[in-house]
């Protein structure tokens, strides 16, 4: 669960609900029940708690999920932006639940939305003066507004919920730390496959690239909540992309799965190399560097 003072209570509540819902969405089903364990700072006021919980309740209702239990505590010395944890539950036919095991060589790799969607939105909201001064008011506005595109639940349900696309989808993985390339790597390894990913086909957004450049970040490896990695049968690619487009969700094909022994490869400027996997997301260092430098 997130509690980030620089963002605000509503925005923190949004992240708390949507980031967990994104995890559930990879199964092809929406969460039905949720439980929250809140470990809040001791100085967190009752008034702020009521506002925070009101937003959590609303966002849960918006996705059709009932809160069935949990616990609330106020902890001395708790100053982390991670303020607890949650468990989301969905009930569905076992044979219809998508897992990484469903992906196989030859499947196409699709990515929704843009690289670094959530990290750039949070950086813009956390350092508004800097982003406005360096990139202009319009880029700031677009980056800030993209914060509420960080749910990938609709992406997943649209792709897996349509009769004409359901049988084509083989696996999904939500983009989090490590960015789009990290998520592709994780899905590939979890499914026991290799992959070929074409750098030129990755979805680079103009606004996201500008914010990443300002903070000296590589958008391909930055926290990208809101984007979904989808693998599907080659013959289903167009139907999946068109289905998402009808819901105004951009989606592009960026590569394909291969046999495991071929490894996970990135093709960039015509050259093939091993796709690197980083265990630390560069977003965090950039955020705290800007904070320490006094960026506003």
Detailed description of the structure:
The chain has helices at residues 9-25, 46-62, 117-126, 128-135, 137-145, 153-161, 163-166, 179-190, 206-214, 237-246, 282-292, and strands at residues 33-41, 66-75, 84-89, 108-112, 169-174, 194-198, 228-232, 251-258, 264-268, 271-274. It is of the alpha+beta class. Strand 1, helix 2 (46-62) and strand 2 (66-75) form a beta-alpha-beta unit. Helix 1 (9-25) runs parallel beside helix 2 and helix 3 crosses helix 9. The longest helix is centred in the first third of the chain and has 17 residues, at 9-25. The mean pLDDT is 96.
Question: What are the SSEs and their pairings?
Answer:
Elements: H1 9-25, E1 33-41, H2 46-62, E2 66-75, E3 84-89, E4 108-112, H3 117-126, H4 128-135, H5 137-145, H6 153-161, H7 163-166, E5 169-174, H8 179-190, E6 194-198, H9 206-214, E7 228-232, H10 237-246, E8 251-258, E9 264-268, E10 271-274, H11 282-292
Parallel strand pairs: 1-2, 6-9
Antiparallel strand pairs: 1-3, 4-7, 4-8, 5-7, 6-8, 9-10
